[in-house]
Amino acid sequence: MVVTDERSPRDGKFIEIIGHYNPLTEPMTFVVDEEKALKWLKYGAQPTSTALRLLTKAGVVDKFKPVAEKKARATKPKKAKAKSGAKAKSTTEESA
Question: Do the Cβ atoms of 30 and 54 come closer than 8 Å?
Fold first, then answer.
């Protein structure tokens, strides 16, 4: 399992090796460096569907989700200010 730029070819240059997977062994072998995987997920790396499935089985995604939820809770959503025209229109509709 490697981290690569999305624009690079499939068998092209990669940024970092974070693990390996061998489905032919019994049971299958999957080794991942959790620290590196979490680091790249925090940087915004988007895993493929297969990589996401493997990272979920390894428990890496579960460790990443609480960190993402903490960040989401820390930033308060901004309330959208309604335009005065929208308020007047809704008031007119209610009175009709």
Answer: yes
For residue range 27-54, list pLDDT tens digits in order: 999 999 999 999 999 999 999 999 999 9
8 A C-beta contact, residue 2 and residue 18: yes
DSSP H helices in 1-96: 34-43, 49-58, 60-74, 84-95
Domains and CATH numbers, the chain: 2-95 (3.30.1320)
Q: Which residue has the tokens 């509709």?
A: 93
15 has a pLDDT exceeding 70:
yes
For residue 15, which of 31, 33, 29, 2 has the smallest C-alpha distance?
Answer: 2
Taking the model in full, what pTM does it have? 0.62
How far is residue 22's CA from residue 10's CA, in Å, rounded to a whole number?
18
pLDDT tens digit sequence for 51-95: 999 999 999 998 887 665 656 666 655 665 555 555 555 554 555
